[in-house]
Design a protein that fits this description.
With 194 residues, the chain is mainly α. It contains ten helices and no strands. The chain is 54% helix and 0% strand.
C-alpha cells in the first residue's frame, strides 16, 4: 500500500505509536489527490494543534490549553516558545508535530502580564502577536525592567480611556509602553525598550 496524501500525518501518528486511520481508494493517483484536496479546506494552525493534542501529545495539549485559557490564536502564543525563529519557522514546528512547550512558566507569566495590561489598551490589543512579543521583550530586559513600576505607571496614567493604542509592529508597542513606563521621569531615570 502507498500513501499518496497525508504522509506527514501518518508519520506523526507512527512516531507517537498511535493508530493510523485511512481510506483505500483503488487506482488513485496524484490527480485523484488534487481533486480531493481541491474541495478540502486547508488546515489552520489551530487544526494542527487540536489534531496532535487529540492524539495525546502533551506539548500540544499544553498549547491548546493556553490558547483556550487566554483566548488567543496559536500564532500569538508561539513567539513565547520560539522567540528566535521567524513566524513561518514557528508554524513549521506546529504543523510538523515538533512543537515543545519549553519555558512554560515564563510563557504563562508573560501571558498574565499581557492580559492585565490589556485592560489599559484598545479592544483586543492584548491578543495582538506584536503586543505579546513586545511584552516578552520587555520582560527579557532583566533588572532594567520593573513589572511593578509598569503596573503603577499604567494605573496612574489611565484616565478611563485606552492608553495603549493598536500598533502595527512590535516597535510600535515598545514605543508606547516605554513612554508610559517613563512618564514623569527625568532623563537619567528613563529606560529605553528598543
Amino acid at each position: 500500500m502507498e500513501v499518496i496524501d497525508g504522509q506527514h500525518r501518518v508519520q506523526a501518528a507512527k512516531d507517537m505509536a498511535r493508530p493510523v486511520f485511512y481510506v483505500v481508494v483503488e487506482d488513485a493517483d496524484i490527480e485523484t489527490v488534487r481533486l480531493l484536496n481541491a474541495n478540502a479546506k486547508a488546515w489552520l494552525p489551530a487544526d494542527f494543534v487540536n489534531s496532535y493534542a487529540d492524539l495525546g501529545n502533551k506539548d500540544y495539549i499544553t498549547l491548546r490549553t493556553l490558547m483556550n485559557d487566554y483566548e488567543m490564536a496559536v500564532s500569538t502564543i508561539l513567539p513565547l516558545f520560539y522567540p528566535s525563529l521567524r513566524h513561518s519557522e514557528q508554524l513549521d514546528h506546529v504543523r510538523g508535530g515538533t512543537f515543545k512547550a519549553t519555558n512554560l512558566e515564563l510563557a504563562t507569566t508573560i501571558l498574565n502580564m499581557v492580559v492585565k495590561w490589556g485592560k489599559y489598551a484598545e479592544k483586543n490589543v492584548y491578543k495582538d502577536r506584536s503586543f505579546v512579543t513586545a511584552v516578552f521583550k520587555m520582560a527579557g530586559m532583566g533588572d532594567r525592567f520593573d513589572v511593578d513600576r509598569m503596573d503603577t505607571k499604567l494605573r496612574e496614567t489611565h484616565q478611563g480611556q485606552p492608553i495603549i493604542l493598536r500598533g502595527n509592529t512590535v516597535q510600535d508597542y515598545l514605543r508606547q509602553l516605554e513612554e508610559i513606563y517613563n512618564h514623569g521621569l527625568h532623563n537619567e531615570n528613563r529606560v529605553r525598550f528598543f
